[in-house]
Amino acid sequence: MIREIEAQFTEEILAEAIKRYDINKEHVRLLGGYESFVYEYQKNNAFFILKISHTIRRSRNHIRGEIEFINFLKNKGLAVSNAVPSDMGNMVEEIAAKNGSFLAISYEISPGKEVSAEDWNESLYEKWGEFLGKIHHATKSYESSYPTFKRQAWDQEVQCKAEKYLRPDDVMISLIKESLTKLTSLPKSKDTYGLTHTDFHQSNFYLHNGDIYLFDFDDCSYTYFVYDIGITLYYALFYPFKEIENKTEYYKLFFRHFMKGYLKENTIQEEEIVYLQDAIKLRHVLLYVYFHQANDVSSLDEESMNRLKKLQRIAASNDPMLPIDLVQEFKSIYNSLK
């Protein structure tokens, strides 16, 4: 949790949010959360999610933009979790704090179950790629209804402002700038850039009757589609939900089936795939920044310090994040689908 947000959060804030959504406090259970406080609650024999964020991260209008995008995807036939109004009919409830405000939003809880080791197979990889391809294809026709609702651009995210959280001499600052420079050299068009989920990893969807049901659009932003793919690959390849013996072969297998599914629903060019290793590296570096957001690094225990050093060591390496030629792999996949 971002320390500036955690320091302001109180039981009174939670009680006020519960009141505004007319929830029985006995039916509220903390689930956790990295950048927001996330709760599950029961009401009228149904289950919902209550998320309490802060204006340090998002404005009220940014969240309304998130909800509008979710509704857009829902209308396009994608399985996503809808937001629900408060007792007063508001989609976002604002609760004043000492510095800014807390913002409470509620969502329908997604049907289905968490992804398990048993689900981790080629069928899932392909469905995962198909779903992301559908989002990228759909967003090409998306337009925000109000300019004030427009979501932030990916490079405006607070994690990219590394100078706020890192020491001035930290090598990660230059690495982030280098990655941003590379990725922003790509041309922006409706076929390469748009509003998308931007955090489509395995803990942000359930499987319902074998199909993906996506939630947690808190990070949705305007970004390059190749970066969005890179985010998914980073989590799926480096943090799989089962033990992998031959990692290189697993990387190839996952990429092959994921991109096969993706290309069923959307097109992407070889010139974009060239930047995929950089996209994966950037996501890794931003986790290093987030670690500094959430922790006082001057007082870490040995385990946490070792984790931080590992993040830094991998990020600072000149080796590609994945020991495979993604462009050649993509060519092979693309040609096999002709």
TrEMBL record:
InterPro entries: Aminoglycoside_PTrfase, Kinase-like_dom_sf, Pseudomonas-type_ThrB. Gene3D superfamilies: 3.90.1200.10, Phosphorylase Kinase, domain 1. Belongs to the pseudomonas-type ThrB family. It comes from the Bacteria. This is Phosphotransferase enzyme family protein. Residues 29-237 form the Aminoglycoside phosphotransferase domain. Pfam families: APH.
